[in-house]
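TL;DR need structure tokens for one chain.
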Amino acid sequence: MVRDPLGTYGALARRYGDAVRVPFGAGRAFFLLSRPEHAERVLVAGQDNYVKAFTYRPLRAVLGDGLLTSEGETWRRHRRLVQPVFSQRHIVGFVPQMVETAERFVRRWPDGVMLDAAGELRKLTLDIVGRALFGSELAGEAQRTGRALEALQRGTVIGTFLPGVTAKRELYRRVPGLGGAIAHLDGMVQRVVQGGSGGELLNLLKERGEFDAEELRDEVLTLLLAGHETTAASLAWTLVLLSRYPAARERLEEEVDDVLGGREPKAEDADRLPWTKAVLSEAMRLYPPAWTIERDAVNDDDVAGVRIPAGSTVAIPPYLIHRNEDFWPNPEGFQPERFIGDQQRPRYAYLPFGGGRRICVGAGFAMLEATLVLATISRAYRLDLAPGVAVPGRAEITYRPAGPVPMRVIRR
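>> reply
TL;DR here they are.
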């Protein structure tokens, strides 16, 4: 489970089916549930009975009480303050910054150069979220932030299996490699909070005066990291898939050329790019950044016929639900047409942003950003994966390419 959690999940599901009970220490059971009705019960209908699992404790030690890790009244208060910035009418106002940042970024790619697409996209998405939400230019922070995130993801996964010490931030600061990563992230947040200007979310959090200094740090750090890492991973996987499926890429390029006619994309163009959005949705089906969602049961429950005792941990892995052949014929295939038109499938057969009241607050922002960035790249460039290169994934806090993604930039 420590070395390869996603591989372990897959092996358990293949051997034992859609509902698997795993003994996991004295008095604790771990349930792996891989059907839409399981997700609906745990994340929506029965959500009051489930809290963030013990597996989030190491992450909470590092990130603090931001939206990703907090519970109860703290979470409700933070969500109430942050939610308005991510309403549909607000996020369309971020589009000029998204597009201008993406245009400026990709214009510097020389024709024919080989680059690390994953690394480039992390720089781009970090700069977009920094400018749009916090009024800060962060592209220069991306390399060190990427290394810090890798150390953070490895350290917190290992920390999951060290009960009793995982909630102590100071302990993580003393771990070689991880301490430096936490110091870099804290320093980046401090620079954003003190130097950011014009960022709507930062201004809101400061002006309302409801967050103390530590809460502000926790929320800014959570939104910076969650707001760029997941989108960058989704875009990287999308470019890899388009390189492997040239017919899908040609259709995307035709759509972008048709709709944009050579100009920069605008907010209203997102709804006029159905194939582009379908390509992104299918990439997130195959490679959901939030690859598993885990909860601890407060009281006994029945989840679609599975008895869950109080105190048990329940894993709802979008990665496995998205590959359940009962709902996804040819589950390993890349078929964006699954997301065109009215498709008949259970609502929770697809949950790249989670579900229930804890669904990702930035889902609309992320989808709009990814659509416009992909259109911006595709109207000018075609990226081809280096010949013979495999792109393995790494499942830790997020599911992302395990290393560099070498792609050649070809100007269209």
